[in-house]
Amino acid sequence: QAQLVESGGGLVQAGGSLRLSCDGSGIMNGINRMGWYRQAPGKQRDLVAVITSSGIDSTDSVQGRFTIFRDNAKNTVYLQMNNLKPEDTAVYYCYARRYGINYWGQGTQVTVAS
Fold it and tell me: pLDDT > 70: what percent of the chain?
């Protein structure tokens, strides 16, 4: 069964950095979109950044601060988050789309203290 496993969340001070990892072992073949969404308390789940067959899509608020990249040898996608802000506080979910089906990880909490 397809499985995405996130790691790397935690508590950090504003201006700090975190790196999230998403292990997609076993489901990397056929994926045409893979990346990260986030959901803050009381809000909908929103796109952070995804790698697609044609490039990278990301939300404006993280451009210049967050970098998404993929290590195919390790079947892992990473989200490097720099200059974190309190408004980045959310549960971050790994996401993959394969053959028209969406897959989600269990989520990892990122909390940025002011």
Answer: 96
